[in-house]
Amino acid sequence: MSEVISKYKALCDFLKDKKCILAFSGGSDSTLLAHVLSEVSPDSLLVTVDNNMFAHDFISYTQQKAKEFNLQHKIIEKDFLKKFSFKSNPKGRCYNCRKIMFGSIKKLPEFNEYDYFIEGTNVSDYLEDRPGVLINYEEKMISPLVECEISKDDVLTILEKLDITYSQNTTCLATRIKLNEEVTSEKLKRIDEAEEIAKQILPEMSDIRIRSHEDNAIIVVNEPFEIGNERLFQLKYALLDLGFKKVVLNLMRYHKGELNIKSDNEGNMIQHLPYNIDLHQTYKHMNNNEKLENDHLSLETQHIKYDDITISENGKISMPENTDFEDKLFKVITSIKRRKEI
After folding, report:
1. Of 109, 232, 256, 266, whose CB neighbour count within 10 A is largest?
2. CATH number for domain 184-249, candidates 3.40.50.11270, 3.40.50.300, 3.40.50.920, 3.30.70.2210
């Protein structure tokens, strides 16, 4: 707990007296940032993009939280379904989404009056395949949680300690639709309704997703084996009534940004990131990271060496078996830059 408190203090120091524009969703990460801004930089601005891709109560919730924090709040309305680059639902949809959203925020007339343009990526997000993070590099956005080495678990611990509520309905509903399958308002509405029903039937589940694949519903929850037959049948028929043709339960539990450290036959500990790494940009950022010792850093043809850690182009991070691998991993991962392949 003392380490988490230290990170929280570092976050407060990082944002103190910095007038910020925060891309605000009301989720755990941006809620923590909004709270800190309300304490150390109350002249900051929260901005939410209403793109019609979120749950029905998304905008009203962000307005409520902004009032709680006593921070200015602006809403930008953008209909993403008019954008073919998004509606066609290609592999780079998250990249396209953030590019439109953050580009809209940068067009605000008062944008240049602020010191930082910030967003809520945390260190654990680097363990997931999130191509939208590329926009952070391109738009020169600042991710304070990454700068202060704060993970998703750290965020949740701090919010619980401070007794601050947040929304779990802040992920884009278009991510529930199979890639290259057209995104429509009808599909989004049905997914939204389906997840509301699922939350009523499964109130104890902390994470619920209803994925739509060619009119078939795939139920994804954090503990699938705890649903039980009776509730599963209740949910099945409720989703069929919404117009889904089939209803399937994914037996793999839903999880976010978790470490998956393995060992190889040579005694090395390995964490494999689900994307390729831009070695030159990563080396540049590691070299500029004051928390790292530059004299232990070198760039090779297909990997970077830092102390006893090897960072490979294919996303593999390894080091000889050691108890401090996790600590070292989170120190270097804040400088990792993924390769653009969209």
Report:
1. 232
2. 3.30.70.2210
